[in-house]
## 1
Amino acid sequence: MFGLNKKDTTFLLIVIGLTLFTPILMQPFAEGSGLAQFNGGYPDLMQKVAIFGIFAVGFNILFGLTGYLSFGHAAFLGIGSYSAVWMFKLLTMNVIPGILLAMVVSGIFAAAIGYVSLRRSGIYFSILTLAFAQMCYKMAYSVLTPLTNGETGLQLALDDPRILDRAIEGSSLPVTNLFGLPMNSTYKLEVMNHVFTFSVGFYFCAVIAILAFYVAIRLFRSPFGMMLRAVKSNQHRMNYTGLDPKPYTLAAFVISGMYAGLAGGLLAAMDPLAGADRMLWTASGEVVIMTILGGAGTLMGPVLGAGVIKYLENIFSKINETVLHGWFHWLPDGIEDVVVWIFARFTGEGWHLTLGVTFMLVVTFLPGGLVEGLKRIRDRVQNGKKKRDKYDDPDPDHQPAPSKHVV
Amino acid sequence: METILLQLLNGLDKGSAYALIALGLTLIFGTLGVVNFAHGAIFMIGAFCAVTLSRIFSISFETVDPTKLDFLGNPAKIKTPYVEAWFGADAGAWMIDWAVPLAILFSIPIMIAVGFAMERGLIKHFYKRPHADQILVTFGLAIVLQEIIKYFYGANPISTPAPDAFKGSFDFGAALGFDPNVIIYPYWRLIYFGFAAVVIGAVFSFLRFTTFGMVVRAGMADRETVGLLGINIDRKFTIMFGLAAAVAGMAGVMYAPILSPNYHMGMDFLVLSFVVVVVGGMGSLPGAVAAGFLLGILESFSSMNEIKSIIPGIDQIIIYVVAIIILLTRPRGLMGKKGVMED
C-alpha cells in the first residue's frame, strides 16, 4: 500500500494511529490527581512535538543518511518563520500559502548555503554551516531590520495590507486559520475525570507531520536514499564507480532545509511571530540532540527524540520544590529535605541539567539512540534469559570474525 | 591615524582572547584528535575561579565597635574580612584588591585537575568514536557544566573588578606624540594583551624546547610509532589536556574584569573559537594564534563608523564572511597540515 512494502505500511499505519490519538494517549492521568502534571496532552506541547518532529525527520535525511553533521539548520527554521509571517502580513491569514512560501524560501536558501558548504566534509562542513547560520542570525538581528524587525521580532499589525482578508477583518488582530477554521480553536471532551483536548492546530500539524513522515519513508527506501547511504559509507568507492556524490548530497541538504522551513512555517502558523532567536546556533544544537537521542538514521528515532525533549522541557520545568514536597511528604523530615533537594536540581529551573546528563549517557552507552535501546529490550525479552556470547552474533558487516586466542 | 591605531589596539585585545581559547582547542585537536565542545565551558570555569577567589577573600565576620554608635544609639557592628584579621589590615586589603591576578595561581591546579578528570573520565572513551559523537558528548558536558555554574552563582553576570592600580587608562596619544586624550586605553586590557603574549610564548617554548614537548610533537605526527618506542604517549596526552585546560582557565580568569562572568559566556565564545581554529588550520598552533589576532583585528576595524557607513552591519558578520572565504579558497585553513581531521 502507498508504494511501501508490507512492513513499512504497518509501521506507517501505527504511526498514523499514534499521531491521531495523541490527545488521548498523552493524557493518561486523571485530572486533579497527583500525577496530573505529567499529562502532556495540551495543544501547545503536542503541536511543538509534531513540529519539532518534522524538523528532526528532515535533519535526519541529511545527517542520518549522508553523515554530514550540519550545525546550522536552525537558520532554515528561522527563515521559514519569517517568510510565513510575511505571507500572513501581506496576503492572507490562511496558513497554506504561508507554509508553502516558507518551504520555497528556505529551499532556495538551503540550495545556496548547501552549494557552498558541501565543498567540504567532516568538521569543516559543520563549521561552515555554523558560520552561515550565525551570519543569518546576526543579519536578522541587525542589518535586515526592515525585513525582520530586529530584536523585537516580526509581528502582525493592524495596518498590514492582508490583501485577501481585508474585507472580512474586524478591529482586532486576526488569528491564523485554515480556510476559515481558526488554528487555536479547541474542543474539550470530559470522560471519567480525564479532560481530552482536541485542537485544530494540533491536527493540522499532525496531518502534515504524517505526510512528512511518509515522504521520509519513501526517501529512505528509494534508490536516492540508497545513494545517500553510499555517500555516508564510502565516498571514494562511490567516485570510483563513476558517480558524483555532490548532486545527491546537495539534494538531501535542500530537502532537509525545506523540512526545516516547513517546521518554521508551522511554528509561525501556531503563533504568528518570528524572532531571530530561532536561528541561534544552540537551536541548531537542539535538533542535533533530538536526532541523536532518538537514533540517527532510523525512521522513528528523530520523532521519538523530539517528543522526549519537548516533553522534558515542558513537564520537567514545571516541577518545582512545592510539588516535590507534595510527592515526598511521606518520608521522614530530614530525608525528605535531602531527596527534594536532589530532585529539585534536575527539575524546574534545572531541567537543562537533566537534558545534558541524559544526552551524555545516551551518546556514551547507546550510540544508536533510544531506538536501539528499545531494540535491545525487545531482543532481551524475546531471547528470554538465554545468555548470548558476543561472537554468536551474525556479523552484519561481513567482516572476518575476531579469532579467539589459542596460545 | 589615531582611530586606526585605536582599532588596532582593540583588535589585538579581542584577538588575544580568541587566540588563547583557540590555542587550547588546537592543542586538544592536534594531540588527541578530539573535537572538544566543552572548551568554552572550561574558559567559563576559569572566569568563575576569579569570582570564587574574590568571594572567599571577602568572607567576613562581624564585631561590635564600642567607639561608634549607629543611628539607633546601639554600638555599631563592623564587618572585618577574615583575611584582614589573619594577615593584617594592609595585606588583607591588598589581597582583596588583587583577587583576580591571585586567582591565576589558584586556578592553575584547579584547571589541571578539571582537565585530567575530563580526559580520564569521559574523553578517553571517545578517541576511537566518530567526531560527531565527540562533538555531541562534549556538547552535553558543556550543558551540564553550565547548569552547575548557574546553580552556584545564579544567572546574572557577576562583576569582578580588576585591582585598583589598573583602574585607569593609559594615554597612548600623549606617549606617542599625538594629541592627548585621543587614544586612551584601559590598563587592564593592555595587561591582558601582555599576559596573552606571555602565555602563548610559554606554550610554544614548552613544546619547542623541552623533551616533553618534543615527545608530544612527535606523538602529534605519529602516535603509534612513538608508542612503539616505549613511551607512554597516553599519559603525555593527558598532561597536554590538563595544560590546554589550564591555558583556557587562565584566559578566563584574566577576562573576568573585562566581561562580567555569566553562565553562558562559554557557549558565546565557543562558536567564535571554533571558527578561529578552522580558519587557522586544524592542528596548527601558530595558525590558531595568527587567525585569532587576524579575526580580532578585522572585527574591530569593521566596527569603525567609516566602514560601517559603506557596508552596514559588516561588523556583525565579518568573522563569518572571512571564515567562509578562507575555508573555500584554502581548504585546510591558513596553516593547516595535511591529514588532520580530513576524513
## 2
Amino acid sequence: MSFIADYYNYWIVVFLMMTGFYIVISASNLVKKVVGLNIFQTSVFMLYISMGKVKGGTAPILTEGATQYSNPLPHVLILTAIVVGVATTAVALSLIVRIKEEYGTVEENEFENKDDAI
Amino acid sequence: MIEQHLATLPIILPLIAAPIALILGRSMLTWAFATLVSALSCIASWQLLMITLSDGALSYALGGWPPPWGIELNVDVTNAFVLLAVSAMSTLVLIYSKDSIEKEINTSNHSLYYTAHLLCLTGLSGMLITGDAFNLFVFLEISSLATYTLVSLASDRRCLTATFRYLVMGTIGATFILIGVGMLYMKTGTLNMADLSTKMAAFESNRTLNTGLAFIMVGVSLKLALFPLHMWLPAAYTHAPSSVTAFLASTATKVAVYVMIRFIFSVFGASHVFETMSMEIILMILAIVAIFKCSYMATVQSNVKTLLAYSSVAQIGYMVLGISLVSIPGLMSGLIHIFNHALMKGALFMAVGAVFYRMGSVNIEAFKGLGKKMPLTMAAFTIAGLSIIGVPLTAGFVSKWYLVTAALEQDLWIVAALVLLGSLLAVVYIGRVLEAAYFQEPPESQDANNIKEVPWLMLMPMWILVLANIYFGINTSLTVEAATSASQWLFQGYNPAGVAL
C-alpha cells in the first residue's frame, strides 16, 4: 500500500500518459487526437513539476525563517515545454481547419475513403 | 569579435532572418535574402569545421553563464561536419526552390515557405551544436514545427493528412525524448551533456537512467525514422513540395541520426549502451530489416517520390548499421554516409522535382521518354542513382566500401553480404525509373513541345550535388579525415576491440 501512496504523483503521471496515448491511437476524430496528445504532454509536465518538490522545502523565494527550498529549475524547463506544447496544438488545430476545408470532415476513416476515390 | 562568437552564428543568423523574411513579403527579395543568410551560415560552418579540425573541440557559454549552469554550445569535429552538410544543403535547396515552388506552392505562401525553411535550419543547427539535453529538445521542436508547416504548404490536399500524421508521430517522439531527459535530470540534477556523462558514470546500472535511455532511444528513433517507426516518412515525403522533400530527406533525419550518436557516445557512454544494455543487437537487427523491407517496398512503388522515400528509410538503415558495429571504422562509415546520403538524396529529389515542374506528375509513367526530352535532369538522376546503388567513383561507393570493410574487420560475413544484397535491390528500384526514362517511348497524346529542360536555377544546384557526388567519390580526403577524427574522438576512453558480438 505504501508503494502506491509514496509514489502517488508518478501513478497520476502514468495514468494520464497512458490515457492520452490511448486516445491518440484509438480516436478517429482528429480534434480528439489533439486532445489526447495534450493529455499525453500534460502528464510529462506533471512529471517534471513533481520532481522539483523538496520535502519540507518552501517556494524558492528568499524569506526569513526558510532554510530549505524546492527546486525551481524543473518549473522553468516546463514553462518552455508548455510553450512548445501550445505551439504544437496551434499548428495541429490549424491543420485540422485546413483539412475540414478541403475534405469537409475531420474523421480519419472518412477522408481516407475520399482520397482513394481520386 | 565575430570569431569569438562564431559558434552561435549558424543558429542566430537564420533565427533573426526568419521574421525579416516574413516582413519582406512575396517578392524576389525574400528568396535572395534567405539564400544569402543560408550561405552565410554555411560559411560559418565551414570555418567551424576548419577550426575544430586544427584546434579540437570548441565550447561557447551562451549569455556568459559558464557550463554546467548555463547553456553550452559545443562544437566538435562530428557536429561541425554534419552542420556543414546541413547548411550547404539548405543553401542549394533555397537556390533551387525559387522556380520549383512556383508550381507547387500558392504565391501568397512563398514568404511563409522561406520563413519556415529558415526556422527549420535554425532548429537543425541548434540540435547539432547544443551541449544541453533540454535545449536539444527545444531546438528539435523548433525544427519539427517548421517542418510540419513546410510539408503542409503543398497545393495537393493529401499533404494535410500526411502532415497531421507526421505531427502526431513527431510530437510523441519529442515528448519521449523530454521524458527521457527528465529521468536523467531526476537522477543527476544536471542537463549539460558533458556533466551528465561524468555524473552518470558514478551510477553502475540504475533503473531510472536505463528507463531514460529507453525513452530517448525510442524518441530519437521515431525522429530518424528507424524501421518500424518510419510510417510517417513515406507519406510526408511524397506529398510535401519537392524542394521541401529534398531538404528534409537530406538533413532532418540525418540530424536525428547525429542526435542518436551524441546520446549514445557523449551522454550515456558507449560501454554502458553497448556492453551493459546490448543496444547494438537491437539496432543491428532493425537496421538490416529496414534495409531489406524498405528497399523492397521501394521496388514496388509507382510514385517515384514514394519510391525514394522508402529508399531513404533503407539508407538510414545503413547509417544505423554502421553505428551498431561498435567500432571506429563502423561509426566512421555511418558518419560518411550521413554526408554522402545528403548529397545523393538531395540530387535525386531535386531531379524528381524538376520532372514535376515540367510534367505535373511524379508517377513512373511521367518519366517515359524523358531521357531525350530532359537530358540534363535525367543524367543527374542517373548519376545520383548510381551513387545510391554504390557504383565505384561515386560517393555512395565510398560509404558502402567502409561499411563492408568495417563489417569484415569483425568477421561479420553475413552482415557484409546483406549490405551488398541490399544494394542489389537499389539497382532494381533505380533501374525501373531509368528504364522508363531511357528505353520507353513517351505517350503519343502528350504535347511534346512543352517538355523541355527546367530553368537553370533548378539545374545548377542539382548538378552541384551531382558533381559533389563524383568529387567525394574520387577524392575522399575531406570526408574520411573528418569522419575518422570524429569517430576516434567519440570512441576515446573506450576500447571497442573488447566488444564481443
